[in-house]
Amino acid sequence: ITYIPHLDDTDSQIVLGFFALTSDISDRKAIERMKDEFISVVSHELRTPLTSIHSSLKILATRKLGSLSSKGQRMLQIADEQTERLVRLVNNVLDLQRIQSGKVKMNKKACNATDLMIEAVQTMQAMAQEQKIKLLVEPVSWTVWADHDYIVQTLTNLISNAIKFSPCNTTVWLSATREQQNPPQQPTITQITFAVKDRGQGIPSDRIETIFERFQQVDSSDSRKKGGTGLGLAICRQIVEGHGGQIWAESCFKEGSTFYFTLPELINSE
Ligand code: ADP
After folding, report:
1. Predicted ipTM?
2. pLDDT tens digits, residue range 248-263?
3. With contact defined as beta carbons under 8 Å apart, do 12 and 6 qualify?
4. How many CA atoms lie within 13 A of 40 on its CB side?
5. Ranges of the chain whose pLDDT falls below 50
6. Ligand 1: distance of its center to the CA of 178 in Å?
7. Has this prediction a pTM greater than 0.90?
8. Atom 21 of ligand 1 has which residue's CA nearest to it?
9. Does the CB atom of residue 161 touch ligand 1 within 6 A?
């Protein structure tokens, strides 16, 4: 703080308080930044050896393991599953850090909304079939201005969660709606709202906003039981906000959830 207050001047003392607060905030920001950098360096250093351990375990698991007892095979399977989880965690941390730092350039172009939903559904079809969950897409004819790969990743994350947190023999629906706003004396804004709806376990109302923050899970044992990392929704939020959109959820505890996000419509595309 370079400001020297006149002690007999009350206004100056108020201003000094403001500087102290600013300095406190910037200290906290610096600490946050250092923490993020530390996590990212550690994750980066972990990725190469972890990927190599994971590939070796995969090769071992697919060979005929006559010499291994059933207990040995089970241990190999656990090692494989847990390494896969670590690889996922490290990749998620790095993804989030890259997007957050603004180093990632969104490659935006015209994308058909239905094609984005169908591509994400195709990616998740095997997981859905395994859990006996039906994935349905309601086709629409709109075009959005978006980075194709990142939006497919966002939809994929939301579908993956919907499957993970739903019972067997239920359906997950994907749809999109169009909203038009006409601000006075300004060009009309149209945006497309995507929705991923499930009939799963739902989210308690006091957690509906915090789940978009890093490492926030309604049930902390989910990362072990369901292989989650608590980073998926934080990544989705960064991607959507990088498109100037918003993401939120509505849910009825024990009845199901709907996740929404908005993207700008490509004007004059129809
Ligand atoms: P995770 O890797 O745990 O899925 P996410 O950031 O994607 O991390 O989600 C954070 C938490 O939000 C989840 O652990 C879960 O508690 C809750 N959640 C997300 N999607 C759903 C859903 N469709 N139904 C119920 N809970 C959900």
Report:
1. 0.98
2. 999 998 899 999 999 9
3. yes
4. 14
5. 1-9, 269-270
6. 26
7. no
8. 161
9. yes
